[in-house]
From TrEMBL:
Name of the protein: Succinate--CoA ligase [ADP-forming] subunit beta
A single Gene Ontology CC term: succinate-CoA ligase complex
Lineage of the organism: Bacteria, Pseudomonadati, Pseudomonadota, Alphaproteobacteria, Rhodobacterales
Quaternary structure annotation from Swiss-Prot or TrEMBL: Heterotetramer of two alpha and two beta subunits.
Record: residues binding ATP: 46, 53-55, 109, 112, 117
Positions with a binding annotation for substrate: 274, 331-333
Protein EC: 6.2.1.5
Length: 397
């Protein structure tokens, strides 16, 4: 789960990290009141969407003006004008995809005098099963680009959880960032704060880009992007409360209500499969036959007819879906349950695209019988290869 920049900053502030003064606003009146409260003479008006690259992004609507999603303002009037231009508009950045994301809230914060822009991130390094620090002097830029063009400018190391974090790690970051004197001390303190927050809140990623040095020599967290481990959210009630459902794919949101493992993708073939491994194999074989999967979906082992029905409805609600492949190996999941779920869903929402069904395993004969007696226009498949071939052919016709 991801959260907004303003939420991430508020969280880091609780842990003692240096962040600018600011608050989220939902309309121009709130923005004006807050702008008068903040010291000025520089304000920063920041679109809150769950994607990076906002500064260099552009709005789809002409009324939003030519500038990006992060704008400097030199007066209260300018703040208000920019908030009016950006709120409700669609911001496209290199991380949103071409559809962009609608800006529902703005973060208004005090402007900083920036001397240097640096990069600092913490993430879970799956290879070593440790938390890894990534630091670079090239802040404010796309870190993937830095990694590609000048990999020597990125310093990375992991922390041994047995011995934990020490000042030495903080000094190592400070050295990588080219900090000296009092800034080293500030950096050691900040590294401790970030590590503590990361561990305690079950973060998966914490990216500060940029971490700045102000003209006055102070380190400051100017942008913060935080992602949490979904599997740990059950014990992070305060983090769960920060969830912004408008940022999530509506299909994925619906699927999460029914405890379905669904991930929306860009292709044209909807997949309903049981078991994550089989779901991956099904996506692979669709690609092998020259098409693209529209989703990953594992309906799970003990799914009910209702759950299967909901899964089918979610797949058919995707306008990109030109065909559906159901691929079930009945183990704990019984083929007759799947068959009943499909029929119930089709009765409710109709079937406007070709449907290929491959059933195997527990109660397969009963499952096949239910489908064939339903009168549904289903293309039966014998095995995985046959199923993939048939659905791709049906879609490409
Ligand atoms: P994004 O990474 O989504 O583009 P950032 O928050 O990193 O958004 O902002 C982009 C750039 O805007 C920063 O690299 C920085 O130069 C400038 N900026 C952001 N916040 C402030 C601020 N409070 N004061 C001054 N400049 C800022
Ligand atoms: Mg940034």
């Amino acid at each position: 789960m991801n959260i907004h920049e303003y939420q991430a900053k508020a969280l880091l502030k609780e842990y003692g990290a240096p962040v600018s003064e600011g608050r989220p606003v939902l309309n121009a009146a709130e923005a004006e009141a807050l702008a008068r409260e903040l010291p000025g003479p520089l304000w920063v008006v920041k679109s809150q969407i769950h994607a990076g690259g906002r500064g260099k992004g552009r709005f789809k609507e002409a009324e939003a003006g030519e500038k990006g999603g992060v704008r400097l303002a030199k007066s209260v009037e300018e703040v208000v004008a920019n908030v009016n231009q950006m709120l409700g508009k669609t911001l496209v950045t290199h991380q949103t995809g071409p559809a962009g994301k609608q800006v529902g809230r703005i973060y208004l914060e005090d402007g900083s005098d920036i001397a240097r822009e640096l990069y600092l991130a913490l993430l879970v390094d799956r290879g070593s099963s440790r938390i890894s620090f990534v630091a670079s002097t090239e802040g404010g830029m796309d870190i993937e680009e830095v990694a590609h063009a000048t990999p020597e400018k990125i310093v990375s190391f992991t922390v041994d959880p047995a011995s934990g974090l020490s000042d030495w790690h903080g000094r190592r970051v400070a050295f990588a960032l080219g900090l000296t004197g009092d800034q080293v001390k500030q950096c050691v303190a900040l590294v401790k704060i970030l590590y503590k927050a990361f561990v305690e809140k079950d973060m998966e990623m914490l990216e500060i880009n940029p971490l700045i040095v102000t003209e006055q020599g102070q380190l400051k967290v100017l942008d913060a992007k935080v992602g949490f481990d979904n599997n740990a959210l059950y014990r992070q009630k305060d983090i769960m409360a920060l969830r912004d459902e408008t940022e999530e794919d509506p299909k994925e949101l619906e699927a999460s209500k029914y405890d379905l493992n669904y991930i929306a993708l860009d292709g044209e073939i909807g997949c309903m499969v049981n078991g994550a491994g089989l779901a991956m194999a099904t996506m692979d074989i669709i690609k092998l036959y020259g098409a693209e999967p529209a989703n990953f979906l594992d309906v799970g082992g003990g799914a009910t007819k209702e759950k299967v029905t909901e899964a089918f409805k979610i797949i058919t609600s995707d306008p990109n879906v030109k065909g559906i492949l159901v691929n079930i190996f009945g183990g704990i999941m019984r083929c007759d349950i799947i068959a009943e779920g499909i029929i119930a869903a089709v009765k409710e929402v109709g079937l406007k695209v070709p449907l290929v069904v491959r059933l195997e395993g527990t109660n397969v004969e009963l499952g096949k019988k239910i489908i064939s007696e339903s009168g549904l226009d289903v293309i039966a498949a014998d095995d995985l290869r046959d199923g993939a071939e048939k659905i791709v052919k049906a879609v490409k016709q």
